[in-house]
Amino acid sequence: MSQKDRAVATSVIEIANLCVSYSQAKVLHDVSLDVRQGEVVALLGRNGAGRTTTLRAIMGLVSKRSGSIKIFGRETISWTPYRIARIGVGFCPEERGIFSSLNCKENLLLPPTVKNASSAFSLNELYEIFPNLAERLSSVGTSLSGGEQQMLAIARILRTGSQTLLLDEISEGLAPVIVNALGALVSNLKKRGYTILLVEQNVTFARPLADRFYFLENGRVADMVHAADIDMRSDAIESYLNV
């Protein structure tokens, strides 16, 4: 996305002064960021920096949160996960959420489509994108390989028609050929106008995909870098990510 496009793009997700606590421990401290229409934004940081918690807060999956989370201009800080999903936000958690009691096809068909979602991928389209799934439809969901489970988790979201995606560590622990395929998929979704917030620790994976990069440190936004400036900020970026 060009500088001019960034200036006029509408924010799909706007977070301001977001604080999240688990029990007595405060995990996020006044986090503010935005994701604009058609962008891929990467949220990077060390383990424990608060990246996954940020996604869970957007989806309404944490109870102790304060501040502001606007989606499509609507304040959603008090909304339930179901209500957030129904307006077109799809969440692919790090643990993938595949049900062991369902086979591959049943997992795929489980979530409902978003109302009036003309963007929903058909099953045939998904089988073309993920041919491995077409061959494993009757297999128990959790018997699939790690890469196949990741494909299933993403395919499930695309079938709902959600065009705003929260993707948590989708490249983690997978073979390079699968990682490359997932990178190509994210790139294609971006071309189709999807808005994506991508949590990653794999900078190599996120770098060619993202328009902007936010860096979290100890539950706070430490920096935001545009893709065009990433090479000039390599030393700072290394400091945010190294243990």
Give the CATH level 1 class of the largest domain: Alpha Beta
DSSP, total strands = 10
What is the correct CATH architecture of the largest domain? 3-Layer(aba) Sandwich
The oligomeric state of the chains shown is: single chain
CATH topology label of the largest domain: Rossmann fold
Explain the overall architecture:
This protein is an alpha/beta fold and 243 residues long. The protein has 2 domains: 1-88 and 163-173 and 194-243, P-loop containing nucleotide triphosphate hydrolases (Rossmann fold), CATH 3.40.50.300; 96-162, no CATH class. It has 10 helices and 10 strands. It has helices at residues 3-8, 51-58, 81-86, 104-109, 123-129, 131-135, 146-160, 176-191, 203-206, 234-241, and strands spanning 11-22, 25-36, 40-45, 65-71, 74-75, 89-92, 164-168, 195-200, 212-217, 220-226. A 6-stranded mixed beta sheet has the order 6-7-8-3-9-10, with helices on both faces. A 4-stranded antiparallel beta sheet has the order 2-1-4-5, with helices on one face. The longest helix is centred in the last third of the chain and has 16 residues, at 176-191.
